[in-house]
Amino acid sequence: MINPPEYIRAIKPYQPGKPVEELERELGIEGAVKLASNENPLGPSPKALDAIKRHLSGLNRYPDGSGYYLKNALAERLGVEPDELILGNGSNELLDIAVRTFMRQDDHAVMGAPSFVVYPLAVQSVGAEKTEVPLSQWRHDLEGMLSAVKENTKILFIANPNNPTGTINRAQEFKRLMERLPEDILLIVDEAYYEYVTDNDYPDSLSYFREGRNILILRTFSKAYGLAGLRIGYGIGRKEVLVEMNKIREPFNTNSLGQVAALAALEDEDHIIRSIEVNNEGKEYLYREFERLGIEYVPTEANFIFVPRLSISAGELYEKLLRRGVIIRPMGPEWVRITIGLMDENKRLIQALEAELGKGV
């Protein structure tokens, strides 16, 4: 038998949520509500679906390996050059490519905790070290992260908004980070949920990119654009950074349907506006209901709400709600993350919480 390196053997694989159909089959229930994976409850743009239908007959052909049309559309929208963009099979893939490009065994990365679980997995997959800096008031402790930087630090990860807490780091503290972060460290800013942000003090990460800073900004079509099943994301970075990443990027890493759907979704402003409206309406409703039920929550800038304390374990609450056909995401011993759904889905969640736990969760 061929044995992998010890650092690979030590990895605990990421456990994605099960599909709704599988859970319904296992539990013998119907009509389950999935509020676990931060998906857009409205689904994709109708224009994206039409684009997919128009391109089905071309599936015998390989996709455009350069993503020419999508990159040009993104470049025009963002005010960057096409070669300052890289497409990925979801922004997850771009995280992995960046780590494999710029880190090796015995290098070091800094990240927050809790934050997106893929960061430590990607770093561990190349045998590198990591420092996970605890959040402060459920937000990234940027001062603490700067203090954790070592001589061999290559990458610093920031999810803004953070997953799973939904919090952001604001413009002034982000500016202080950029002023003090050594220039030879790549700052990866994961903005998977940036479309949902309503705080006017959200930092403009693109302005630092335009200044020539060593920053890689990651965004996705999986969340607000409702294309999670097609796996397409993008990164914005300096040309010299992306040249190196493209050397190990798979040549056909984004599929044909994902590219045309993303291009059409970009053009459907009405759908993205409605998606954000639905999220904001659901967020305010859940805030009110959580307060009525005595459920502590962290105010969010994303499409999910983080519940940091429960009177029972997160796993127990997950199981109780699952039996009532409501799927949430347990994130730790007593933390859960709940996606904001359509209003009827949100109401069903509240009914299930009230039935199982009553007041004082």
Question: What can you see in these coordinates?
Answer:
This protein has 361 residues and is of the alpha/beta class. The protein folds into two domains: 6-43 and 270-357, Aspartate Aminotransferase, domain 1, CATH 3.90.1150.10; 51-267, Aspartate Aminotransferase, domain 2. It has helices at 6-9, 20-27, 46-54, 68-78, 91-102, 118-124, 142-147, 171-180, 205-210, 239-248, 256-267, 269-293, 314-323, 343-357; strands at residues 33-34, 85-88, 108-113, 129-134, 153-159, 186-190, 215-220, 233-236, 304-307, 326-327, 329-330, 336-339. A seven-stranded mixed β-sheet has the order 2-8-7-6-5-3-4, with helices on both faces. Helix 8 links the parallel strand 5 and strand 6. The radius of gyration is 21 Å and the shape is globular. 41% of the residues are buried. The model has no long low-confidence stretch (mean pLDDT 96).
Q: Any key phrases for this structure?
A:
361 residues; alpha/beta; Aspartate Aminotransferase, domain 1; Aspartate Aminotransferase, domain 2; 2 domains; 3-stranded antiparallel β-sheet; 14 helices; 14% strand
